[in-house]
Amino acid sequence: MMKLKDLGITGKERNALLDVAAALDSGTLKHTTETNDGPAFNIDITADNNAYECGTVCCIGGWASILMQGGTIQKEQSGDLIDKADDYVRGKTGCPIEALYYPSDVDDWSDITPPVAVAAIHQFLATGKVDYNELIAEHGE
Predict the structure, then answer these.
(1) What tens digit of pLDDT does each residue of 128-140 get?
(2) Count of other CB atoms within 10 angstroms of residue 72
(3) CB atoms within 10 A of CB 117
(4) Are 2 and 126 contacting, i.e. CB atoms less than 8 angstroms apart?
(5) Helix 60-68 crosses helix 79-90 at what angle (to 10 degrees)?
(6) Can you tell me the distance from the alpha carbon of 141 to that of 122, in angstroms, rounded to the nearest whole number?
(7) Residue 135's pLDDT is what?
(8) Which stretch of DSSP H or E encloses residue 57?
């Protein structure tokens, strides 16, 4: 694993990312295309697109933010947690972690399934970079 300062993240962020990876790997966070089918994962659905009372679907950064705020992976999240998660992810543009949160080199973000996301988290923590197309080819369905 790279040093936190080289990744531009805190220990709290690293731990949250590892927790998100574990939740994706265990199936606690399943992949969905619906905005109210939570708790679930979709890298193409932003936290603020959710109807809070219907279930939370977030990307990697959204779930990491919720966990860093003391939230848990559950169906319903408070509007405040969701708003802060959205702000957190949007605030990471221009940072090294942007490569993990915004897969700009991928044409169809729905190809980023939980196995791909888990591999991306580990690749980012190990190298500071993410090659989503390589990971989709290796781990995609």
Answers:
(1) 999 999 999 999 7
(2) 11
(3) 28
(4) yes
(5) 120
(6) 19
(7) 97
(8) strand 57-58
Is 40 in a helix, a strand, or coil?
strand
Residue with tokens 């319903």: 76
CA dist., res. 62 & res. 78, Å (int): 13
Alpha carbons 117 and 21: distance in angstroms, whole number: 7
Q: Is 0.85 topped by the overall pTM?
A: yes
DSSP bridge pairs for 31: 41
pLDDT by residue (tens digit) across 94-136?
Answer: 999 999 999 988 999 889 999 999 999 999 999 999 999 999 9
Six token digits for residue 106: 């991928």
Both structure tokens of 78? 């408070």
What whole-number distance in Å separates Cα of residue 4 and Cα of residue 52? 32
Q: What is the 3-state secondary structure (H, E, C) of 78-114?
A: CHHHHHHHHHHHHCCCCCCCHHHHCCCCCCCHHHCCH
Token reading at 5: 């300062």
Q: Beta-carbon neighbour count of residue 26 at 10 Å?
A: 10
Q: Binning pLDDT at 50, 70 and 90, where does residue 54 land?
A: very low
